[in-house]
Amino acid sequence: MPWVVLVIAGLIEIVYMAALEKSDTFTRLWPTAIFVAGVIASMAGVAYAIRSIPLGTTYAVWVGIGAVGTSIYGMLFLREPAGLARLGCIFLILIGVVGLNLLHNAADGEAA
Fold first, then answer.
1. For 65, which DSSP code?
2. CA-CA distances (angstroms) from residue 18 to 9, 24, 44?
3. String of b and e for 64-86 (b: at least 16 CB within 10 Å)?
4. pTM of the model
5. Nearest-CA neighbor of 42 among 74, 1, 5, 72?
6. Do the beta carbons of residue 82 and residue 26 sit within 8 Å?
7. What is the extent of the structural domain holding 8?
8. How many domains are contained in the chain?
9. What percent of the chain stands above pLDDT 70?
10. What's the distance, CA 54 to chain centroid?
11. CA distance 17 to 6
């Protein structure tokens, strides 16, 4: 369950970052409210995950999901560049997140 909560917290990070962009520097009420609620919800999910997943892994996975998702959101909806090098870097982040998950699972198997 902590992994599911962590992934949801990462997805919420994408939502609150999109809301931050739409808030126009906190001058628009609803995007600002979504941002604040999203930060609280995402942090609560990370706090829950840290109880079972090592801090470094939790943070890297959460940030990785947020960074990749926010980058993809920017490319799809904000006309940010989507060059091959940028996509390659996003792929490397994904590989790192998957690798951390695999290493965490392997360490659990060793401890058993």
1. H
2. 14, 11, 19
3. bbbbbbbbebbbeeeeeeeeeee
4. 0.86
5. 5
6. no
7. 2-111
8. 1
9. 96
10. 16
11. 17
